C-alpha cells in the first residue's frame, strides 16, 4: 500500500466534502492513520497549497529517510508529548486491529520491536530511539 496515495486521498477528501462523505469508509480502511496524517501536515485543520507541497515532498522517493522517519514519529505520537509511549502504542495497535491489516503474530512482532527499540528502558521511545530502530527496518522506507 502506498502511503503517498493515502496522503493524496487525504488531501482530496479534505478539500472536497462531497467525496469525503462517499469515500469515508474506504479511506479509513486504506489508512487507519489518515486523521493523524492530516493533523501532522496541517496543524490548523485546513490544507494550504504549501501543506500539500510539504506532504508531497515528504512522501516522495527523493525525500531523505530521516525526514520520513521524522514525520512517521509525529504521526505515531498521538498524544503529542514528544515520545511514543504506552498510550500511543495502544492507539496504534487499536487502529491496526480495526483495519484488519494486522495478524496476531505481527502484533507480537511489533510489540517486540518496540521493546527492543527502547534502549534506555523507560517504556517509551524518544525520537533518537525511534530513528535508530526505523533505520534498521528497510520496509518502512519504501
Ligand atoms: Ca506520545
Ligand atoms: Ca526509551
Automatic annotation (TrEMBL):
The keyword Repeat applies. InterPro entries: CIBP (IPR051433), EF-hand-dom_pair (IPR011992), EF_Hand_1_Ca_BS (IPR018247), EF_hand_dom (IPR002048). GO terms for molecular function: calcium ion binding; magnesium ion binding. Residues 64-99, 105-140 form the EF-hand domain. Keywords: Calcium, Magnesium, Metal-binding, Repeat. SUPFAM superfamilies: EF-hand (SSF47473). PANTHER family: CALCIUM AND INTEGRIN BINDING FAMILY MEMBER 2, CALCIUM AND INTEGRIN-BINDING FAMILY MEMBER 4. This is Calcium and integrin binding family member 4.
Amino acid at each position: 500500500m502506498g502511503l503517498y496515495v493515502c496522503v493524496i486521498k487525504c488531501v482530496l477528501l479534505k478539500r472536497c466534502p462531497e467525496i469525503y462523505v462517499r469515500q469515508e469508509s474506504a479511506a479509513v480502511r486504506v489508512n487507519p492513520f489518515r486523521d493523524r496524517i492530516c493533523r501532522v501536515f496541517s496543524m490548523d485543520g485546513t490544507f494550504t497549497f504549501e501543506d500539500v507541497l510539504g506532504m508531497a515532498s515528504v512522501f516522495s522517493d527523493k525525500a531523505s529517510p530521516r525526514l520520513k522517519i521524522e514525520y512517521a514519529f509525529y504521526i505515531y505520537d498521538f498524544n503529542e508529548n514528544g515520545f511514543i509511549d504506552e498510550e500511543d502504542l495502544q492507539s496504534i495497535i487499536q487502529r491496526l486491529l480495526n483495519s484488519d491489516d494486522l495478524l496476531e503474530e505481527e502484533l507480537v512482532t511489533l510489540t517486540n520491536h518496540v521493546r527492543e527499540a527502547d534502549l534506555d528502558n523507560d517504556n517509551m521511545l524518544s525520537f533518537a530511539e525511534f530513528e535508530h530502530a526505523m533505520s534498521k527496518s528497510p520496509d518502512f522506507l519504501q
